[in-house]
Specification:
Two copies of one chain form a homodimer. Chain A has about 325 residues and is of the alpha/beta class. The first copy, chain A, has a single domain (about 1-315), classed as CofD-like domains (Rossmann fold, 3-Layer(aba) Sandwich), CATH 3.40.50.10680. Chain A has 13 helices and 14 strands.
């Protein structure tokens, strides 16, 4: 089994590549739930939905979230009722939310609901929420403590970030659907997708026992850099790094994950950092990490799988 | 205050007329909830929604339910997930259901959620669910006992009806928002809308204390015939009457309500029944009861208000 830890867009793209490359094999995508929240009585799971839409090819690649060829009749009708529509749900996207609502109402856990959704979408790998417990990523800013969606959607990432907090994480057991195989030695490698290390991968690594399990595991752990040529491919990561006084380079990402990593996938535009990374004791693969289409996602997935094999050979 | 008891389409049309005629006065529409059910985690309230859409002029007059200029993106996307879409929710219609969901999730009763919806729609009268308790209209047929939606939507009213049952009615207190003013003497008349007497008005009259309160009240009670020229204007009422061995005439409606009534509004096509009704001790008004547009609804509403005054004068 391969485990991939994922946030939203970038993780979804690599997840699709991994799912394409690992057909018939055992792939488990572990998805951040720190951004999840309740809205109009629906459970909103932005990263999970980005990943399953991405793997199924239903995602809107221009907008970067939600479904392609979306319509907005319901949102506009909600606005007529005077409902604050700061968070938009498209008409097609609502179908997934209603399916989830009906599963949760009938007593399913987030993990069980996810499995049913994945099954109904015909997705050929596991996509598992990191935990069934509520964890809320709080962005600590000079505008106060903000929930991730407040920071990201309402305030457009404008407040200056000083730190992060994961409310509820200390009581949030990792979902057994992915953690049992990981701790049981059933994984041959873990890929940290090119997602935000603070607010996407950070919550998964922050769950009780996860970092220790990764260190104990014989399986290699690799990361794909979400920083390319001095900027984040998507989202507020570059701005966050600057506000935290860190360089906007792959080295900052490596420093964040530290000695958890056995390997690092660097973008070809950042090859200059390869020697410094190798000096720090990780194996480095270099490739074009921009996943602009399905084939590009497969290319990065192949680089990840090759690097995992290389780490494994070296360890063996 | 005027009280009107209403089911779906016919009641919605008369409700709109009453709301137009009674601007600035006190009108309370009491709506059947016996057809309500849970679907995909949403609370479906067909009659309530027909009434508020009808009063606001948002209803689809051709289809007979839901909103005008509706789209079906979400329903089609649900079908792609393999969700059984026997019960269709349009994209615009979903907005009302999500608003209701969010109100109910935040602890509102059905009555409180209804008041908020009515307020947000800018409706100038009260529209109150008959009760906050679950009541389920069961249609007893030669195909077994069916919930109303199963009978009406899934089985297209095809099974032969032998009787009706109101599951839970004995524990279902009428909502105080309409029952307190009724019992407190604050009503000057009650209109039973041209809705199905068995499955629309029947559940309201079947709530504990309602019939007794109507009999005790000094305010007159009148009904508008849902049977015109030997057929029901809408829905399975004519078929039900035949299967129950009753004539498809206003006399069967009168017989059903019996001595609860002080007045009866007869369609002009059925004027022939006026003498027989008068013999039975009710005041009769005759008018064109087909409410094909807004002005027609006002016309029937005026006939109702005039008949209530006539009953009142006579009693005084």
């Amino acid at each position: 089994m391969i485990h991939a830890f994922s946030g939203g867009v970038g993780g979804a793209r690599l997840s699709r590549g991994l799912a394409d490359e690992l057909v018939g094999e055992d792939l488990t995508i572990v998805v951040n739930t720190g951004d999840d929240f309740d809205h109009l009585g629906l459970r909103i799971m932005p990263d999970f939905d980005s990943v399953v839409y991405g793997i199924a090819g239903w995602n809107d690649t221009v907008r970067g979230w939600g479904r392609a060829e979306e319509t907005w009749q319901c949102r506009d009708a909600l606005a007529e009722f005077g409902v604050d529509t700061w968070f938009s749900l498209g008409d097609k996207d609502l179908a997934l939310h209603l399916l989830r609502l009906s599963l949760l109402e009938s007593g399913a856990t987030f993990t069980e609901a996810a499995a049913e959704i994945v099954h109904r979408m015909g997705i050929n790998c596991r996509v598992v929420p990191m935990t069934d417990h509520p964890v809320e990523t709080i962005v600590i800013t000079d505008n106060g403590d903000l929930s991730f969606q407040d920071y990201f959607v309402r305030m457009r990432c404008e407040p200056r970030v000083t730190a992060f907090r994961l409310a509820g994480v200390e009581r949030a057991a990792p979902s057994a659907a992915w953690f049992d195989p990981l701790t049981g030695g059933d994984t041959r490698g873990v890929v940290l997708c090119p997602s935000n290390p603070f607010v996407s991968i950070g919550p998964i690594l922050g769950l009780p026992g996860v970092e220790a399990a990764l260190r104990r595991s014989a399986a290699p752990v690799i990361a794909v850099s979400p920083i390319v040529a001095g900027d984040a491919v998507k989202g507020p990561l570059a701005k966050m790094l600057r506000e935290l006084g860190q360089p906007v380079t792959p080295l900052a990402i490596f420093a964040h994950y530290g000695d958890l990593l056995d390997g690092f996938v660097l973008d070809v535009r950042d090859e200059i950092f390869a020697p410094q990374l190798r000096e720090r004791g990780v194996r480095v693969a270099v490739c074009d990490t921009l996943m602009s289409d399905r084939e590009a996602s497969r290319r990065v997935a192949r680089a990840c799988l090759a690097l995992l094999s290389e780490c494994d050979d070296h360890a063996g």
